[in-house]
Amino acid sequence: MIHALPPQTVREAERRAVARAPRDALMLRAARGVADAVERLAGGRVGEGPVGVVALAGGGDNGGDALYAAAMLARDGLEVRAALLSDHPHARALAEAQAAGVDVRRLPLPLDEGVPGWLTADLWVDGLTGTGLRGPLREPLAAAVRELGRAARLAGTRIVAVDVPSGSGAEDGTVPGAVLPADHTVTMGAVKTPLLLPPAAQYAGSVETVDLGLDAGAYGEGAPSAEVLRPEASDVSLMLRVPGPFDHKYTRGVVTVAAGSDTYPGAGVLAVMGALGAGPGMVRLESSGRTSRIVLDRHPGVVTASGRSQAAVVGSGLDSEIEHRALSVARRALGRGIPLVLDAGALGFVSALRTDPGPLAGVVLTPHAGEAATLLAELEDRPVERDDVEARPLAGARRLTELTGATVVLKGSVTLVVGTDGRVFSLEGTTGWAGVAGSGDVLAGVMGSLLAQRRAEEERGGDPLDVALTAACAVWIHAEAARLAAGADPAGPAQALGAPIQADELASAVPAVIGGLVRVAQEERRTRRRRTWAQTRDEAPSAPAARL
Ligand SMILES: NC(=O)C1=CN([C@@H]2O[C@H](COP(=O)(O)OP(=O)(O)OC[C@H]3O[C@@H](n4cnc5c(N)ncnc54)[C@H](O)[C@@H]3O)[C@@H](O)[C@H]2O)[C@@H](O)CC1
Ligand SMILES: Nc1ncnc2c1ncn2[C@@H]1O[C@H](COP(=O)(O)OP(=O)(O)O)[C@@H](O)[C@H]1O
Ligand SMILES: [K+]
């Protein structure tokens, strides 16, 4: 699990560590991390002509990191230039870059003539501003950053951001002005919240952390309440279990899907495919005749009679004919206290369900920004636009959780999950190809299926169901399935960009993702076992052991 902390918290820990370390020692470690990332990303192109790298340096320590990294890259044999965008760059780092043979030039602002040709390169290192940014980028830097962003996009230049993409850095992920979008961010000491929170996270690309040896205690008390969590493959893997000799379909979990209608049968098919792919014991479908026929044609194992289940998904593709039945499926789930995913059209049930007795504690709402705006407007009786939610998604998701008492999954290229206990999970989309009609229906199915499986596990005496974490893991699986189906690996050295996919192809890739994860789980359990073994090896023999 990645734990992201507020930038100020990391900055304070950094300041204490800098005071204890030799001069520029931390900065040199930071720079090495940046240089390594650049070399890794540039690697795929070696042999196709010189790899050109330009370091963009501002006037603070972020620029110092970039200039030291430029020096290291030059000494490693790359062709490196540095552009100074400030009158007072970090003096020692600048001297080191010059001594290493970096071609250092001033870049006078404003960029009246546009971006000069000598900046054309395979890669830029963005060291304009880091955690020292205060407020929105001021002119003339703001305009320059917009110009640079445009030029990089046109030329296909990849950008590696130092610490945070310049112009971003607000703790809540809001973006006050111009930002230089990065393909990859090398962050120092610990992941900072804006790297995981949209919209800022949408500018960060993939994120890696350079260990600066800041000990966890250095972050001070109270940090966890402000932290943002990002599950990794190993965390997701532990949600899954390979069925064993004592399993049967009911122990594996049964999920009811109430989606699709005669008008929109496809949504029901896709939600069922997502649910089946995630590996429950059974999927029940409660939908229109047309939807049921199409589903049964493709998936004869689906059961179209109502009955016991451990979770329900209600939502996508409802029409007025089926709406009443879908609402009663939702009410039944609430009455039985099983987890319930309300997706798409069923988000309109929230107001009705809120007036029912009992909290919506086991409910997961899965709006995209537009649906979240509609729901907020309805619940608060005030105008809320999609843009408002997109500008401050964390605030929007938190507000929805407060208002409803449900877990909220706010979908987008970065998806936020806010739990009823206040935990915030951030899941990064793997490929833009995932944003296709029906993709959300597949996600709802995967989520309901995973919730049913975890609920079944709880009923067997396993770990208690963690609704928010389970929902977050479903988002992870969905994103990974999209990546697999599209053949995309945009963050990889070979930069596989993938190809268009349809929602049913995404759903068809889910079983392979699950299969990969159960192997990861085996590995993860082995690692944890061995860590515990090693930790306990040096303990003094305890009384029970001595008796043995
Ligand atoms: N001190 C150290 O030894 C270390 C520092 N680190 C780096 O240092 C960075 C923080 O450095 P600083 O505190 O010097 O600050 P930054 O370098 O992040 O930013 C300060 C610079 O940005 C300018 N600036 C601030 N707000 C602005 C605005 N609104 N519009 C335009 N310009 C603005 C300032 O004038 C100054 O030139 C981190 O992000 C990290 O990259 C890390 O390398 C870890 C070690
Ligand atoms: N640019 C993107 N990058 C990655 N994932 C995306 C992107 N855009 C959308 N997604 C994902 O695709 C899904 C779209 O869901 P939704 O908007 O409900 O679509 P639909 O209603 O058509 O099924 C969500 O899971 C969302 O997170
Ligand atoms: K930066």
From TrEMBL:
Homotetramer. Residues 232-517 form the YjeF C-terminal domain. The keyword rRNA processing does not apply. Residues 10-220 form the YjeF N-terminal domain. (6S)-NADPHX binds at residues 61-65, 130-136, 163, 267, 317, 368, 441. Binds 1 potassium ion per subunit. Its cofactor is Mg(2+); K(+). One of its GO terms (molecular function) is NAD(P)HX epimerase activity. K(+) binds at N62, D126, S166. Its EC number is 4.2.1.136, 5.1.99.6. This is Bifunctional NAD(P)H-hydrate repair enzyme. It holds the Pfam family Carb_kinase. Keywords: ATP-binding, Isomerase, Lyase, Metal-binding, Multifunctional enzyme, NAD, NADP, Nucleotide-binding, Potassium. AMP binds at K411, G412, S413, V414, T415, G440. Belongs to the NnrE/AIBP family. Bifunctional enzyme that catalyzes the epimerization of the S- and R-forms of NAD(P)HX and the dehydration of the S-form of NAD(P)HX at the expense of ADP, which is converted to AMP. This allows the repair of both epimers of NAD(P)HX, a damaged form of NAD(P)H that is a result of enzymatic or heat-dependent hydration. Catalyzes the epimerization of the S- and R-forms of NAD(P)HX, a damaged form of NAD(P)H that is a result of enzymatic or heat-dependent hydration. This is a prerequisite for the S-specific NAD(P)H-hydrate dehydratase to allow the repair of both epimers of NAD(P)HX. It comes from Schaalia naturae. InterPro entries: Carbohydrate_kinase_pred_CS (IPR017953), CARKD (IPR000631), Nnr (IPR030677), Ribokinase-like (IPR029056), YjeF_N_dom (IPR004443), YjeF_N_dom_sf (IPR036652). It catalyses: (6S)-NADPHX + ADP = AMP + phosphate + NADPH + H(+); (6S)-NADHX + ADP = AMP + phosphate + NADH + H(+); (6R)-NADPHX = (6S)-NADPHX; (6R)-NADHX = (6S)-NADHX.
